[in-house]
Specification:
The protein is an alpha/beta fold. It has a domain of about 140 residues: P-loop containing nucleotide triphosphate hydrolases (Rossmann fold), CATH 3.40.50.300. About 45% of the residues lie in helices and about 20% in strands. The strands form two sheets. It has a five-stranded parallel sheet, with helices on both faces. Strands 4-3-6-5 form a four-stranded mixed sheet. The longest helix has 16 residues. The two termini are about 15 Å apart. The relative contact order is 0.21. Bound molecules: guanosine-5'-monophosphate.
Length: about 200
């Protein structure tokens, strides 16, 4: 079985990363989600170990010191990091590991794992992004404004990504990411023994 790979999904807060990733996970059994650690407080309905590992600053710093993260970054006002062991184990099992992380983290991942695939999710427009952020109702007005302003900075990083997908209709966006995954799975370099199967 070929090794798995990392699929990094980034995009401004409110563009629908969570929805797209959930649908991808429901539809594709060879995908797993990398649950990040964060110092952010849980939102209503968020579950420990499902959405995030919610930890305090002290524990986060300890994890940094122990080299337990593939990448970490301060995003908006809090720290977020991708636990290393889980991700590497899953790749060795042949899984495609989804990292739903910000642009700073994505670049760190690409530097360390050049074969990671970077997908940038875009809203159909900035006014639609503002609407989605407000409608979500999970942040204060101040937080919404921080996230909206940060979006403009994040968009500048799209040049570093291999693919973009505009999230207008969810199902269409999901299918586009699946097309990226399918293409990646079919890369010859991922199937060193392909001819053995055909010839013998
Ligand atoms: P939220 O607070 O809305 O869940 O996430 C805020 C931002 O942090 C999003 O852009 C999300 O993709 C990003 N994020 C979540 N987990 C990680 C992580 O482990 N590392 C990095 N660098 N960013 C993350």
């Amino acid at each position: 079985m070929p090794k798995g790979f990392l699929l990094v999904v980034s995009g401004p807060s409110g563009c629908g990363k969570g929805t797209i990733c959930n649908k991808l996970l429901q539809r594709n059994k060879d995908l797993v989600f990398s649950v990040s650690a964060t110092t952010r407080r849980p939102r209503n309905g968020e579950k420990e170990g499902i959405n995030y590992f919610f930890i305090d600053d002290k524990r986060f710093k300890k994890m940094i010191g122990n080299n337990e993260f593939i990448e970490y970054a301060k995003v908006h006002k809090n720290y977020y990091g991708t636990p290393k062991n889980f991700v590497l184990n899953e790749i060795n099992k042949g899984k495609i590991v989804i990292l739903e992380i910000d642009v700073q983290g994505a670049l760190q991942v690409k530097k360390a794992y050049s074969e990671a695939i970077l997908v940038f999710l875009l809203p159909p427009s900035m006014s639609e992004l503002k609407k989605r952020l407000t409608k979500r109702g999970t942040e204060t007005e101040e937080d919404i404004n921080i996230r909206y302003q940060n979006a403009f900075e994040e968009l500048k990083f799209i040049k570093k990504y291999e693919y973009f997908v505009i999230n207008d209709k969810v199902i269409e966006a999901v299918e586009k990411v699946e097309a990226v995954i399918t293409a990646e799975k079919l890369k010859v370099k991922r199937h060193k023994n392909i001819l053995e199967k055909i010839i013998f």
